[in-house]
Amino acid sequence: MDYVQTTFTDAPGPLYPGQIVDSGTSSSRDEVRSYRTETLIYPGRGVVKGTANAQNDQILTPYGVKHPLAGSVLADIVGVAVRLSNSSADANGVATSNRTTQMWPIAELGSKAHIAAEVPTGITIADGDAVYMSVSHASIPVGQFSNAAAAGMIGPIVGAKWVGAAAATTIGRIEL
Fold it and tell me: What is the pLDDT of residues 62-72, one digit of tens each?
């Protein structure tokens, strides 16, 4: 029976951008925290710091998060937006948040969590590759990740790496 999975690696389940694949080695803190969104964000793509939070008694994060901007720098990166079951899709079929100014889970940098991310067209990922994020790259959507420095990319993101190999236009895994 060719279709029967006999080992974990011969037919792994499908991954979706923003899906937590593995909690990694995180043990001293949670790998995901909820942040207030300031703009539309996309599961599996990076988010950066937004405005300082004036409601720390109600919202426990010190700032909101937003989609990266052309002027975003490494210090601005908070983590990766986690996919929710209630994600809606945009005109291109890409999962998005439902609206801005809502609480959204973010897998934080430094958590060691493994999260699924789209591999851009023309990019081949090798295990252990460095992680770079697009903030204005012409051929890679803003917030998407790559493994090479280029104009409009920031990185390498300290502590982050690609886990396992992945081909272009597939789903890879990033350790945060």
Answer: 899 999 999 99
> What is the C-alpha separation between 82 and 32, in angstroms, rounded?
8
> 123-142 burial, b if ≥16 CB within 10 A, otherwise e?
bebeeebebbbbbebeebeb
Q: What's the rounded Cα separation, in Å, for the pair 153 and 131?
A: 10
- For the whole model, what pTM was predicted? 0.84
Cβ-proximal residues to 23 (8 Å cutoff; 6+ apart), any chain: 31, 112, 113, 114
Q: Which residues contact 15 (CB under 8 A, 6 or more apart)?
A: 21, 116, 171, 173
| One-letter amino acid for residue 87 of the chain | S
Which is more confidently placed, 45 or 91? 45
**Residues with Cβ within 8 Å of residue 129, at least 6 apart in sequence:** 147, 161, 162
* Structure tokens, 61: 């994060």
